[in-house]
Automatic annotation (TrEMBL):
EC number, as in UniProt: 1.1.5.4
Taxon lineage: Bacteria, Pseudomonadati, Pseudomonadota, Alphaproteobacteria, Rhodobacterales
Keyword Flavoprotein annotated: yes
Encoding gene (name): mqo
Catalysed conversion reaction: (S)-malate + a quinone = a quinol + oxaloacetate
HAMAP family: MQO
This protein's name: Probable malate:quinone oxidoreductase
UniProt xrefs under Pfam families: Mqo
The family this protein is said to belong to: Belongs to the MQO family.
Length: 571
């Protein structure tokens, strides 16, 4: 039996033999490639070293999801004459994590997510992160509104819908926490319109299913905000790419998998990719963005930039219970988030979500953590072992040793039965019937691990932009809050890789047209916040009344205590 060597081995051997990079890099690539123990033969056709073979494109986007498409649209706004190409390994865009069925679809604005407002050792609630998350989502709303005005996006209900956001908790301690959180948040203009109640009848008005069959002896509390949204990021991605594909400066390559990324002598990058079963194709680019979700880390490692050496990744998947029964979906019109159980990661918080997917109302409950060595839902089981290097192995082991509670949590999640998942659902929906629900495997999330001089390695929550020193290549690593803040993340990327251009009058003027609040914190400008909430609500057809948009804020006493480090992951 003969087998062809994986392309990564071929590229590494070529590099070592031909001297295209340091032997250390080639050995790393060979070490990272898992090859079954069998006889192997291969015929290598060595591509010529890139010198000045062709005119490079201005921008190459690797990955056809919400991040790459957002950056493509933004750069086209700023530089309409730039040439842009996109490479996507699957046969359509938005088929991985951006797909509506592979994520919760929450417009993350910290209205219901309790992990963004932790309580310190003095019992005070800290809302700094909640404020930041909300401000960044407002940037996304403004960005989408601008794209609607240009015809890039259309039919707002196809991708965003008003969906009240709720937090729901039980027990004395949790009720006390939620009351404190509400008092802290209402001092900030961003959370105007939020209500708090401990009355089961009032909570039943907001989310009927949660109170039907509720044990009256069980103390309960909830907050409700009218400003919440359900967002189909896959639909936004498809509309972005449809617009870009109609531009003469844009080319889309589907069913095309990147095999190598090498720097050219002139400072540009040569990316080799294979389209289906055809031969290798190449494209040179002045700037490369790797927005490939879980696949970003291996591709960043492939580029060989020093900045990537300290990073590792650990994949965690998620599954949801789904009900498409109209009697269930038709009576639940909110996103209801709880508080993570003691010992569980704060971001693992369960939630009962009203969703609009493919024009249909459904309800999702979860997530339940799953595990696979794949970095992508449609990826390879070799992706985790292939990402391990001599430099990032110790950070990975250190994170495992210092976060053993996470390992225990994941092990417990993997042992859940259908009965266990139904029991978890019944905490939120006491009368739930098993026959109304089925299990759906959602997408993969790769948790970022970074070398730390003191701890060996640390888990990095949120998203992280990693770029070469000269800004010629960048990748987005991480998971949450992810898609809901794609626009502000891409603004951050521009500041990092185009620091001179972003200061030019032309770019500044355009950026302020796209996002009127650009450069200003909405939490510090209530009048601007109110006007932008009204403008975006009207453009996006969000059903929020003028009274609910009236901004009222007050002074808040600063928290007294300090926050402890808590192990966490995004599912």
């Amino acid at each position: 039996m003969t087998r062809k060597l994986p392309r990564k081995v071929v590229d590494a051997a070529s590099t070592l033999i031909r001297g295209r990079s340091k032997p250390e890099t080639a050995r790393r690539d060979l070490l990272n490639t898992a090859v079954p123990p069998t006889t192997v033969t291969t015929q290598v056709s060595w591509p010529a070293r890139a010198g000045a073979a062709r005119k490079p494109v201005d921008v190459l986007l690797i990955g056809g999801g919400i991040m790459s498409s957002t950056l493509g649209v933004l750069l086209h706004d700023l530089e309409p004459d730039w040439s842009i190409e996109m490479i996507e390994r699957l046969d359509d865009v938005a088929a991985e994590s951006s797909n509506g069925w592979n994520n919760a679809g929450t417009g993350h604005s910290a209205l219901c997510e309790l992990n963004y407002a932790p309580m310190d050792d003095h019992g005070d609630v800290h809302i700094e992160k909640a404020v930041m998350i909300n401000e960044r989502f407002q940037v996304s709303r403004q960005f989408w509104t601008y794209q609607l005005s240009r015809g890039v996006l259309n039919d707002p209900p196809s991708f965003i819908n008003s969906t009240p956001h709720m937090s729901l908790v039980w027990g004395d301690d949790n009720v006390d926490y939620l009351r404190k959180r509400f008092e802290a948040l209402k001092s900030c203009a961003l959370f105007a319109g939020m209500e708090f109640s401990t009355d089961p009848e009032k909570i039943a008005e907001w989310a009927p299913l949660t109170m039907e069959g509720h044990d009256p002896s069980r103390k309960v509390a909830a907050t409700w905000s009218p400003h919440g949204t359900d967002v189909n990021y896959g639909e936004i991605t498809r509309q972005y790419v449809t617009y870009l594909a109609a531009q003469p400066q844009f080319r889309l390559h589907l069913s095309s998998e990147v095999r190598s990324i090498r720097r050219n002598d002139d400072g540009t990058w040569r990316v080799s990719y294979q389209k289906g079963g055809a031969g290798m194709q190449e494209v040179d680019a002045r700037f490369v963005f790797i927005g490939a979700g879980g696949g970003a880390l291996p591709l960043l490692q492939e580029a060989g930039i020093p900045e990537a050496r300290d990073y590792a990744g650990f994949p965690v998947g998620g599954s949801f219970l789904v009900s498409e029964n109209p009697d269930v979906a038709g009576r639940h019109k909110a996103k209801v988030y709880g508080r993570a159980d003691v010992g569980a990661p704060p971001m693992s918080v369960p939630h009962l979500d009203s969703r609009v997917l493919d024009g249909k109302h459904v309800v999702l409950f979860g997530p339940f953590a799953t595990f696979s060595t794949k970095f992508l839902k449609n990826g390879s089981y070799f992706e985790l072992p292939a990402s391990v290097t001599r430099r990032n192995l110790w950070p990975m082991l250190s994170v495992g040793m210092h976060n053993f509670d996470l390992i225990t949590y994941l092990a417990g999640q993997l042992m859940l039965t259908d009965k266990d998942r139904l029991a978890a659902l019944r905490k939120f929906y006491p009368n739930a019937r098993a026959e109304d629900w089925h299990l759906w495997q959602a997408g993969q999330r790769v948790q970022v691990i970074k070398r730390d001089p003191e701890k060996g390695g640390v888990l990095k929550l949120g998203t992280e932009i990693v770029s070469a020193q000269d800004g010629s290549i960048a990748a987005l690593l991480g998971a949450s809050p992810g898609a809901s803040t794609a626009a502000p993340i891409m603004f951050d990327l521009l500041e990092k890789v185009f620091p001179e251009r972003i200061q030019t009058p032309e770019w500044q003027e355009k950026l302020h047209q796209i996002v009127p609040s650009y450069g200003r914190r909405l939490s510090e400008h209530p009048d601007l916040l109110e006007s932008e909430l009204r403008a975006t609500a009207k453009a996006l057809q969000l059903s929020v009344s003028p009274a609910q948009l009236k901004i009222v804020s007050s002074e808040r006493i600063a928290p007294r205590g300090s926050l402890s480090d808590i192990s966490d992951i995004a599912i």
